[in-house]
Amino acid sequence: xxxxxxxxxxxxxxxxxxxxxxxxxxxxxxxxxxxxxxxxxxxxxxxxxxxxxxxxxxxxxxxxxxxxxxxxxxxxxxxxxxxxxxxxxxxxxxxxxxxxxxxxxxxxxxxxxxxxxxxxxxxxxxxxxxxxxxxxxxxxxxxxxxxxxxxxxxxxxxxxxxxxxxxxxxxxxxxxxxxxxxxxxx
Length: 186
Known about the structure:
By secondary structure, the chain is mostly beta strands. It folds into two domains: about 1-50, no CATH class; about 60-185, icosahedral virus (Jelly Rolls), CATH 2.60.120. The protein contains two helices and nine strands. The longest helix has 16 residues, at about 5-20. The radius of gyration is 26 Å and the shape is elongated. The two termini are about 40 Å apart.
């Protein structure tokens, strides 16, 4: 051990042994074991280092009150564009969809959202041939003559791209007002 790393090693051992030497109960939950590793050649840190507040590991995004007239999910040129969701830095997303039909529906169907990565080649395939690569999808059933309100079951998916374009469809016979919730997590 070199002269430079000796004080850091002594400090780390002192931090770990202090609760035991001070007579603290090691089974208490408020005592945490801390391991300090110093990488002086690969990670040079100068100045003060601090973390203020909790570190975000999740984020909620919403697309609210989007009007979606009747349009099938395979009618790709007529799908209703609703915006872009940013998922950069997150590994998964939980999608939830709800809304309200503008009147009692006579035809059962579903209201749904399709997320397509915002990548040039993926968007080109979608725009030119309606081909939806790497898509994420969420849908909520709407019963004929039932409630005007609908909601999906939340669906968890892995995130493979930093940004997704959102398109909506509606296979009922009434226009729907749709809300999409995207809860991105690590």
